[in-house]
TrEMBL record:
Transmembrane segments: 28-46, 58-76
Keyword annotations: Membrane, Transmembrane, Transmembrane helix
Protein name from the UniProt record: Uncharacterized protein
InterPro entries in the record: NrtS-like
NCBIfam families: NrtS (NF038050)
Keyword Membrane tagged: yes
Top-level taxon in the UniProt lineage: Bacteria
Organism the protein comes from: Hydrogenophaga crassostreae
Amino acid sequence: MRRLLIVNSPQWANDFVQIIRHAGNRRVLGFALKVCSVVGVVLNLINQGPQLLDGGSFSWWHGVLNFVVPFCVSSFSGGRNELRNRQASGY
């Protein structure tokens, strides 16, 4: 069933499935975790720093999103890069 879905889907859908598959690669996930660790801290300082300095409360929802979004972007980009490298090498 899954193979049928990929074969009958448009090319962009096939590429998307392959990108998600490559994004789950251990190397890609490791790099995405490193990126989101740094970028998430910086985004939290930018977005919530002034509020915290004024004695406000920390918004956990926004704090978590500041880590999740860079992780998703980095892992998707890494998966896309892996797919392009494999397509270029004919693998």
